[in-house]
Structures are given as structure tokens and as C-alpha cells.
Amino acid sequence: MTEAIAYDVVVLGAGPVGENVADRARAGGLSVAVVESELVGGECSYWACMPSKALLRPVIARADARRVPGLRQAVQGPLDAQAVLDHRDSYTSHWKDDGQVRWVESIGADLYRGHGRLAGPRTVTVTADDGTVTTLTARHAVTVCTGTRAALPDVPGLAEVKPWTSRDATSSGTVPDRLIVVGGGVVATEMATAWQALGSRVTVLVRGDGLLGRMEPFAGELVADALREAGADIRTGVSVKAVERSGGIVTATLDDGSAVEAEEILFATGRAPRTDDIGLETVGLEPGSWLPVDDSLRVEGHDWLYAVGDSNHRALLTHQGKYQARIAGAAITARAQGVPLLETDRWGAHSATADHAAVPQVVFTDPEAASAGLTLAEAEAAGHRVRAVDQDIANVAGAGLYADGYTGKARMIVDLDREILLGVTFVGPGVGELIHSATIAIAGEVPIDRLWHAVPAYPTVSEVWLRLLEAYRG
Q1: Which residue ranges does UniProt annotate as crossing the membrane (predicted)?
Q2: Which residues fall in the annotated binding site for FAD?
Q3: Residue 337 lies in a domain
Q4: How far is CA 218 from CA 15, 221, 300, 308, 463, in A?
């Protein structure tokens, strides 16, 4: 039995969230151990954010170029799919984590490779590939930063078919002739956009009545229109009842009695927490569960245990997880230093308030869909007295310069009692770069009268802010 190795903080998971917790704790003078069972850098670096955007960037750039007079004629041919895949591979460092390992070492944290499990309060065991077990103890905190995995539905034949999940969709080295995408959310729409442009004939199967159901309805409508124009077949209100693979062909049988065939099928039907085998039962928690936390990211009922990023189910987005990590790192450091009263009030240094009020998101489809804060339905459900203000982005001079036939829409949700913004949604080419201004306005609770004096540069697409404010003021 080897003696336990003590650290101030033990971090389970070396993705962007775990890395940021480690970085903040080290900056506060605490000793840190980081435990990782796969690649250092996590889902985002190898199977999510980076590879997906590397696949999508050529798609969006070509679409934008085709809308510019004098340029569209030069980009009429198909994408070089192999070049796009090679570009993707370079962004994942060919699924090698040497650079990320060097970064962990550079901040002074110790990396332990292997499967980490809680073994009681403040204790973590790490089982390496060769079976060696190392025991770590935490003086101040253990942070669960283990992220999520694809959640697959209970569909007959699914295990035998070996469907794509998000990992396969972002890492495939070949372009299937046909691809079925099951789901209507972010992963489904982005991967449908990418693989349709790379040469697949894509069929999207959506159980609900439209795409991007957690955004304003017009977002999904505009994205669906564009996917259909690109050649994708989108079917709403259908469910997959069974799947089978024969001779390299997958057949999906639908609840309406029809069937769809393809070389591959992607299930993008949700995420589940990777907390099923990390020893939660040893500290009185349910294995496989989401971990409820307070605004300092401390797990309810455990003064030493933190859940940061996807595992707490507050906002399944890399940037929000990194934000939470900065908050958690500051809170852990303050508590370790004996600070008697943390700043956990609204917008305090130790409070992840933005998770409730100002979460931004960009869907990198063509057109892009970007939002921050609440939708109209969410604001009304929360009991706010609100007004939605809509504008056609095509009416902005900068939009016409950006692209011929620019199609897009903007909406802001105004709290009528406080005259501040609760939410903003943009849909259109290039709008992803607009959303941070909305995030600032929401997080800063900038009064409408003050926003009137934030003059957008002419002629840019951001002039849509002026049009929204003019419409509100009348």
C-alpha cells in the first residue's frame, strides 16, 4: 500500500475546464494534481469545438464568397474534401496531446494519467493503464471536470449498427456518400452543414417540429431553409423506430412506416454526464448523475467537492465551463486562504451569475445563429414583463455589402420594468462576431437609454443595433 500523495487541489479531467481550474488554483499559490484518462485537452480539443469548426470554416467561407459579386465565379467548384479533413487533423494535433501536456507542466501542475475515482471525502485513486494505483488526497478541494458523452436512445439494432456520435462526426477520415443525422440541435445542424458541403447527401430526422429548438423559432427556420437549399432532406415530426446495417448500408425505419438508407447514421440526440464511474457513491452521491452546485460551483452538501463545466448541467458550452472554472478557481483559492466572506452576491468575483443571465452561444451553420440571454418564451415563462423587438438584418447597409441577398433576422428582448435587455438573437452570415456586444449589454445590465449612445460603426452589420433601438423607441 503506497502512501497517499497530498495536494491542495485535485482536478478530475484535463479538458479546457479542468485546465482552467488548475491554472487559477496554481495562480493562487495552491498545489494541483490533474487526472486525465484520455487526451489532455479534452473533448473540445479533439472531438468537439476545434475539429467541428475546422470542418465548418471552409464551408462558411465558400458560402460567403459565393455571395460577393466578382468573387462568386472563382469559387464555384466543390470543396477539396481531403484538404478540409487534413486541416481538421492539424487542429486536433493529429489526436496527440504533447502540446497540452507541456502546458499543464508549464503552470506547475502535476499530471496523472489514468482513471480517476473518488474513494471517500477528499481522496482520489488513479488507476493507470498498467494497473498501477496512485492515491491522491486534497487538502482543500476536488473538482469534477469530467464533461459529458453522447447520450444514445434505446433504439432496436443500434448497438449492432455502430452509429456515429459527435466524436465520429468530427473525426471521420472519409466522406460518406449518404449520411443520416438524427436530431435537430447544435451538433446535428452543424454536422449536417459540414458533411453536406463536403459531398454527403444528408437526411436530417427531427422528432420535434423544427431545428434549434432552444433558440428563437426563426433561428431554426432560417437554418433549415439554408440546409434544404444546399441539398439536405429535412424531415420533422418523425422518430427512428429501428436501425439495421447490411452490406455496408444502414437502414433507419421511421415511425411513419418509411425508411431511409445511408452509409452512416449520426445520433445527435443529447448528452449525458461522465460521472457514472468516478466514485460518487463513496461520498453519498448518485453515480451517473448531474451534480447540483451553488454559484461558487461547490456541490450541494459537500464543502470540499466542486463540479465545474458540463457535469453540473448549468450550461453545456465550453466557454461557460471555462468561465465557471475561473470562478471556481477563485473561490477555492479564497477559501484556502481563509477569506471569511466570499463575494457570492450577484456578479460577485466568486459567483457564476452569468450562467443564469447572460449565456452566449454561436451555432456555426450557414447562416450562423447566435444568441445571448433569454429567448422570448424563456423570459415570459420566468415572469418578466417583456417586449420582443425584431428587425430584418438585410435592411442594414453593412449587410448588403457583406453579401448579396443577405438573409437574416435580429431580435432583442427588453425587460419593460427595468428597460434593460434580457436576451438577443441574431441569425445571418457573420453574426457570430456580433454576439459579444449583446453579451456585454445583458451582463452589464446596460439601460436602453445608455445603449442609444453606443453608436455602431457605418457601414457594418452591427448597425442592426441602431435599427433595433429605433424600433423600440418608436
Answers
A1: none
A2: 53, 116, 310
A3: yes
A4: 33, 5, 38, 32, 20
